[in-house]
Amino acid sequence: MLKTPTVTDVFALCDQQDSPCVSVYLPFEATPGGRKAARIALKNAVDAARTTLPTETTHLADQLQILGESAVEYAHGRGLALFVSSKWSLSFNVYTSWPERVEVGKRFTVLPLLRAVGAQPRYYVLAVSPNHVQLHEGDAYDLTPIRGQIPHSLSDALGEERFLPHLGRHSAAGNAPVYHGHGDRKEQQSQLRRFMRAVEDGVWQELRQADAPLILACVERNAALFREVCRYPGLVSRCVPGNADHMTLARLHEATWPVVEELLTTREAAWREEASEALGTGRGTAVWSKIGAALRDGRLGALLLPTDRRCWGRIDPVSGAVTVEGHPGPDSVELGEALAQTALRQGADVVVLPPDAWPAEAPVVGLMRWDATPDAPDDGGTSVHASRALDRALDESFPASDPPGTY
């Protein structure tokens, strides 16, 4: 199975300077006909790369052919990304589709890959009941159980003998206790709260350095109790309702991935709203040269780029001045690609949006770190990084007060 790309992979590709670099993007379908079409597209990409590469480096086309054949054989997503240089040979499988594209240049082309990373994020699922607790890590394709220090059940969390007087049980295979709701309701609620605190502590220890969404899969009562004690900021207010004890990984993934897709749609809408607001207040700009100046001065908080447009030009390596050109020339670069890589190195957000989430007719949008006009000098004003408004929009879309288990 091919690797799914991460932001770390994008950073590594950005840092690669072993020219020439070959970047290939191919659409893909995991069917016999899809693999046949991908092999034809791969052959065309190899021929195009061989034609473009300097004579002394045409062996990279052969390297690309070998890498691509293996990728087509084992891919299972909707798109393939191949990267080859004298020191690198990487292939990725992505959930999103894209048109065929072959680039040979001084650096790898990473914008399509960055868009794919944003469209297929990692996420976590906590399936929890008194009888079974399991934390999973997932992506667009599947879920993988995490083996951590999280209690596996109520008895594992607090000790069987402390619960039997208040919770009914019967024995399952292997004499493992299976709990059900008999006994004093107040005592039962107290014990469930202690159980959830133990589970939450294990989840917190496992995920405290993470920032991916966490989705609950459980009955509404357990979801409400877990939310009361949860410290993890990425907990999604909407859960998969019902007992997940007997759900297969495939079924659990099928139930949770739509929640992630809804989060992605909300996030894109939030970026669009933030960009429109910033352009109206002067905290954003749609002018390439002003974005270049903001990058030069370290004032750019976020760079937004469309998936369906490309703009060519030149960037002065000393002053950072940007000159827009109508078509690619011998010394020109794709401005979005070049500025995105610089922005990533500076710690700015880089967001690639589809046409239906793109604000108005702007060719590009830059959001400033400081509450000032894009071409004004820094006067030590208050920082208003773009992601703050994004966080507010996400909070409004997924309020903590949403009833557990509702969509």
Relevant terms:
single chain; Nucleotidyltransferase, domain 5; globular; 60s Ribosomal Protein L30, Chain: A; 11 helices; Translation, Eukaryotic Peptide Chain Release Factor Subunit 1, Chain A; 407 residues; alpha+beta
Explain how this protein is built.
The protein is of the alpha+beta class. It folds into three domains: 7-119, Translation, Eukaryotic Peptide Chain Release Factor Subunit 1, Chain A (2-Layer Sandwich), CATH 3.30.960; 123-247, Nucleotidyltransferase, domain 5, CATH 3.30.420; 266-391, Ribosomal protein L30/S12 (60s Ribosomal Protein L30, Chain: A). 39% of the residues lie in helices and 21% in strands. The chain contains eleven helices and 18 strands. It has helices spanning 7-15, 32-52, 59-74, 111-119, 154-158, 185-207, 220-229, 249-281, 288-297, 335-345, 386-397; strands at residues 21-27, 79-84, 89-94, 101-105, 123-129, 132-138, 143-145, 168-171, 177-180, 214-218, 240-241, 284-285, 300-306, 312-315, 322-325, 333-334, 349-353, 365-368. Helix 8 crosses helix 11 (386-397) and helix 9 runs parallel beside helix 10 (335-345). The two termini are 33 Å apart. Residues 374-407 have low confidence and may be disordered.
